[in-house]
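2.7 Reproducibility. Because tokenized structures are sensitive to small changes in the input, we list the exact sequence used for WC11 protein, including any N-terminal residues retained from the expression construct. No trimming or masking was applied before prediction.
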Amino acid sequence: ELRLSNGTGPCSGRVEVKHEEQWGTVCDGDWTIEDAEVVCKQLQCGSAVQALNRAPFGEGSGPTWLYRVDCRGDESILWNCSHTGWGSFTCPHYFDTGVICSGFSALSLTGGDTACSGHVKVKQEETWATVCFSHIDFKTASVICNELECGQAVDILRGTHFGNRHELIWQEEFHCVGNETHLAHCPRMLHYSKTCSHDATVICSGETL
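Resulting structure tokens (single pass, no recycling of outputs):
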């Protein structure tokens, strides 16, 4: 089994592996974005945004199960990548690896008047999740328009009222600086709210020239 611990949600955190009924960590010798890509894919967390070293999500406990993991990036599970053997090297937890995955595999604006306006949705595994109005701001809207090649952000509106609509709600708030090239690269905060008063509607200026 594989999981990410101590992050902002199930798709970021310290990489932990269960072997022989015990959870342990992965040591950061040569930890690269290709290795992180396999972790994100295995957890159905979209693509890898960052591969991190030196216990960015705190030090774990238990054995360091894997060391010098070397993935090509297309393996289906992490331990199919080459490594030095289970528990072959005891590594201080100061070197535990971390991963930040996008958590979503696609981004779209739907139901607007143009291809460059509409409700913000992100694809989580096979389902589209709606982003709440309270979870994004203008800088985030700018990043969305930029990523979709839709020019500049013009406006961000409180979209339709949610009421009892049975739709998946995206559980993270985006806190973009504004210069990120992809929404997945923006800092985020987990925000467990079962309710969402309005969805977010973003209007971009249109296609970039």
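The radius of gyration is 19 Å.
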